[in-house]
Amino acid sequence: MCGEYEIMQTEYMGAPAPEANSLLAFFDVGPGLQLELIQPNEASSTWRNYLNEHGEGIHHVAFNIQGMKMPEAVKRCEEFGMTLEQKGEYGDASGRYVYMNAYKDLKCIIELLESDK
Fold this sequence. Notes:
By secondary structure, the protein is of the alpha+beta class. The chain has helices spanning 5-8, 46-54, 70-79, 103-106; strands spanning 11-12, 15-16, 22-30, 33-40, 60-64, 83-89, 95-101, 109-115. The chain is globular.
C-alpha cells in the first residue's frame, strides 16, 4: 500500500483524498529506468480515474526534480498548460510527488518526484 493518510496527505483535484490508495510494485529494468505497477483501490484518485477512463496501460512518465523545489516545478508545468491533478508525500515521509495532467499536448500524466534524501 502507498501508506497512511496522516503521512501521505494525498490530495486529488485539490481536495483531501484520505481513502485514495493503491498497491505498488517497482522493478528496476535498466540503468535509470524503473517500471511501476499500480493497482488502485476504488476511491477517487488519478490512478482510479485513469483505469476507469482508459483501462489498463501507461498512466504516467516520472521525472526526479533534483535541484528544484516542487512549487517551482509545478509552476513551470502550469506555464506549459498542465494542471495539478494529485499530490502527496511518500509513504515513508522521505519526499513528495505530484501528478500533472498533460493529456492535451503529451497524451499522458507527468509525475514529478522530489526526494528529501
